[in-house]
Amino acid sequence: MATLTKLSGPGDALYTELCKAAQNSIEGLRKVFFQSDIEQLATDTARDKKELLPLVQELVNHSLLRLSKLDRALCWSTRPRDAATAISRLNADEKLVYSYVEDAHQKGIWLRELKKRTNINPNAVTKAMNKLENAHLIKSVKNIRAPAQKTYMLYHLVPSDDVTGGSFFDAGDLDESLIDELSNLIIFHVRMQSWADTKTKRIKRETTPPPLTAADDPDTAGGKKRKRGPTTDIEDSAATTRKYRLSAYDTDDPTIEIITQLALPAYSRAYPSAEAIHSFITTTDAIRASKAAQLTVAEIQNVVDVLVWDDKLEKIGDGYRTVRGIKFRPPGFLGDEEAEDGDKVEGNGLTQVPCGRCPVFELCGEGGPVNAGSCVYWGRWLKEGA
Amino acid sequence: MAQSLVELTSLLAASHAGDLSAQIFAYLAKHGRLTLPSLAAHADVPARRARTALSSLVETGLVQYTAAEGTAPAFYTASWAAAYNIARHSNVVRLVTERHGIQAGGVVKNILSLGYARVGELAEAYGLEPGSKRDSGVESGNTVVGIKGTVNGATHHKVSGSQHVNSEAELHVILVTLLQSGILVKIGRRTFVPVSDLQDQVEEAVISDQFPDRKVTGPKKQAAFSIAVRQLKRKWQVEDAFSETHDLNSKGTIKRPGQHFTAPNKRVKLNGAVTNGNHATEDDSSVKLSSELTVRVDFTRCTIGLRSLRLQNTAKRLLGPITSAVYGALLHSVEAKIRILHTEVNELQDEDDDPDDFLPVAHIREIAEYLDPDIELAEALGSEEDKGKHVQNGPSTAKRKGQVNGHQEGEDHPGEELGRIANGFSSYRDSAKRFEHIEAHLRLLEEHSKTFCKYTRPGKTPKGWRVPFAALSKSLLDEELDATVAARYGKVPLRLARLLRDRGKLEEKAVAAIAMMRIKDVRSVMGEMQHQGLVDVQEVPKEGQRQPSKNLYLWYFDTQRVQALVLQQTYKAMARTLQRVQVEKEDYRAIIEKAERSDIRGQESEKLEQSERVQLRKWREIEERLLTQVARLDDVVSVLRDFSGTDITMGN
């Protein structure tokens, strides 16, 4: 590889001009210049095409410009100066490999694909890739579509959503805590929009009201912090959903807050739609601005859909409402979420009996190795409730 | 028939009719229809005992028979549906108690344990009347006397306990109410004939009547045939429900449930009074039923009622108790107008018609009649201002504002409050206001994504509210399956199952993207669910070679399959629960036997030791718990199998 002569003055000036134009455009370094574009920009440095040609050739030789074809017309795009110096030190194989990676742009290119296309010795490709990577010319990114395949792209590029998987992926991995927080935020927002609350305070009686049925565990009565027993029986006729809010400092406060969640009149209003939720999420300060800017309505819609499947939201018309009784976690809540949700799963007649969850249910039969008499789960089940 | 159902029905028959009958039932269940001699010979039971067992089985409806004309022998068939319905008894009693009061519940309980009952005998059993021997002639009479002897002890015992049917008139009022609501029906000539035989008879009658060439091929003829069959069936049902000898002195009080809302004013009033629970004083000679009238419980009707209860509970969970009370009233008034669980689409004359148009309509006035007047409707309606404040002030100040709102809420309708107190629920203005509130609640129900009810579409008559039962039954079914999945496997499998149900067949990667989960996690959950039979996978080859590595694998959730699977599991779990009752009984055998001795029965508190009483109570608790669980399992079965009315695996 012959060493290049130093870049000439007019060449340098043209390059600076082009870089400036590229940076001012939306596309950045991806901005392509056609011959006419360059002629316009180069009015100071080169008076006509004859003078322009050697200048462009010189820049291409110095790897400062990249030659490509678009719609059968030649076009050029700029490269950063340090990249250019690094490229100029590469050998032919490496240059070829680099050009392919460069063509792949934000999508990136698989290593296998690269080997196939360049049609050179695979070992040489691997070697070239290592060298390029060490020189910080290219980088490997994790492609969400094919996590096992190595994907490469230019070092300075930001991978596209296709590659990263969208806003909910962090370095190729699903950002579960972001989804979780976002879900909570959505539930909070929708809950505030979709139900009317009335709260009445009542003087708490000294002793808790007597149990409704004799089956109620008598041990729980009398205790101030009475935990509500498992109300599997839904026959209660109380007209309100009651929450006993007894925080650590107000145990002496003799009032109980009774919150009644009331539906808003039907057809009177539009419940928040995915678009409305999106605009709330992106304007609130709850999540990082760069992340917020990245979120799309489709992504929010996806989160909302999942919340619907999780029985947290329900669709009303074009908008969404929280399912009655759904609570959001207050900010800074660090309690065990599973414990909170755990007692909500009531199941049905089938899953309440041991058989509904029995691991050897298929084997169970009269006279078989497992049967109603020898079953250990039944014994436990009967003891539990007694 | 599935093995688990055979096991379950045999157990139920044993618990209801005794060991010998259960043996006969199980034999019939296994071998199909048989005549008495061949049954006795094969089952190795003396003919005399087989006959006794059969007669008691026929009374309870567990066995049905077809007697051909002339001297041909009768064929006996086990009735799956009746045997299964034993498990539903406690739910039926619960339904009746809830709707018509505790006394009615008691009456129904007794009729259920008898199979069917003559009104005169019921009155006798309650000790309301000196037992007047009725004249013979009705052939079913003798058998009823026989069974009465066996059950009477228990009946008497209970009657004197809590159910307080004090006078004969009261009993008649209860019976009339139950007959009107359709829960009780009269026994007709064809009650004991198996459904399949009835179908054959109907079809034969139609063919010989209307199709002289005996050919019903071709779409047009087939349609005409099925319509004719249905008409004749209905005609027979009407015939069964009315017979002159029995109904002459009841002055036509017995009508088919669909007709009672057009009945004279008086009866409507009576009905209203009953729902309000103060019917004891209603003493009207005109409601006296013939003591020869024989009634049984109609399970189809009860299933409709149970479906309504279930829907109401769902509405309560999603929209609150008051809205659900309004919904209950709507269901109640619509229920009075439906005959069957499911309207078959081919019954509709025109294909362009919306099937919903054939659903019964309830006017708001009727709904108001069924609704408890003490329920404060306005309280449960949020208003726009409430919400606005919350949003403006954010969650921190919501508490204080909410307090203020609570007061506003009360002040919103002060006129109504005063009016109610001053002159009851009589003034026109008040009732107009009440209708308005009812309508507001109904609109809430309509707005919900489950579409609990629907208002008549514009341009159609009659105006009023409908309940789209078919769609709602489907959503109850989905809900039940969801609950099963969630309780067994957790929330993530639930999310995936619902996702697949909504979106259809999907590849692993698509599932992961939509569910926002890692592919790895999705794969493991899906594998587990496939193992349990909840989801399934379809292989789609991309190329001719069908290489496994290059195939597409699409996951899907087949509701019908999962429904059948869970149903079978529920049968099996029910059978196990019933078997466990026997297992537990072994442990307490001594004390149970002692308590059942004739000299101790009824006075356990005096004649038993303290420790024995504790033991006895323990046993009763265990039995109660297990039997309650059977009732809950039956809830699952009714959702999975019966509510849609389209399942035919049980014969009827």
UniProtKB/TrEMBL annotation, chain B:
**UniProt cross-references to Gene3D superfamilies, sorted A to Z:** Winged helix-like DNA-binding domain superfamily/Winged helix DNA-binding domain (1.10.10.10)
Q: Which residues form the RNA polymerase III Rpc82 C -terminal domain?
A: 174-476
Q: Which GO terms describe its biological process?
A: DNA-templated transcription
Positions of the DNA-directed RNA polymerase III subunit RPC3 winged-helix domain = 482-556
Q: Where is the RNA polymerase III subunit RPC82-related helix-turn-helix domain?
A: 8-66
Q: What is its main location?
A: nucleus
What keywords are annotated for this sequence in UniProt? DNA-directed RNA polymerase, Nucleus, Transcription
The molecular function GO annotations come to: single-stranded DNA binding
Where in this protein does the record put region Disordered?
Answer: 382-421
Bias class Basic and acidic residues marks the residues at 408-419
**What Gene Ontology cellular-component terms does the record carry?**
RNA polymerase III complex
Pfam families found in the cross-reference section: HTH_9, RNA_pol_Rpc82, WHD_POLR3C
Q: Give the top-rank taxon of the lineage listed in the UniProt record for this protein.
A: Eukaryota
**Per its UniProt record, what SUPFAM superfamilies does this chain match?**
Winged helix' DNA-binding domain
Subcellular locations according to the entry: Nucleus
Name the InterPro entries on file: POLR3C_WHD, RNA_pol_III_RPC82-rel_HTH, RNA_pol_III_Rpc82_C, RPC3, WH-like_DNA-bd_sf, WH_DNA-bd_sf
Assembly, in brief, is: Component of the RNA polymerase III (Pol III) complex consisting of 17 subunits.
The text of the family note is:
Belongs to the RNA polymerase beta chain family.
Stated role? DNA-dependent RNA polymerase catalyzes the transcription of DNA into RNA using the four ribonucleoside triphosphates as substrates. Specific core component of RNA polymerase III which synthesizes small RNAs, such as 5S rRNA and tRNAs.
Tell me what this protein is called.
DNA-directed RNA polymerase III subunit RPC3
Recorded source organism is Meristemomyces frigidus
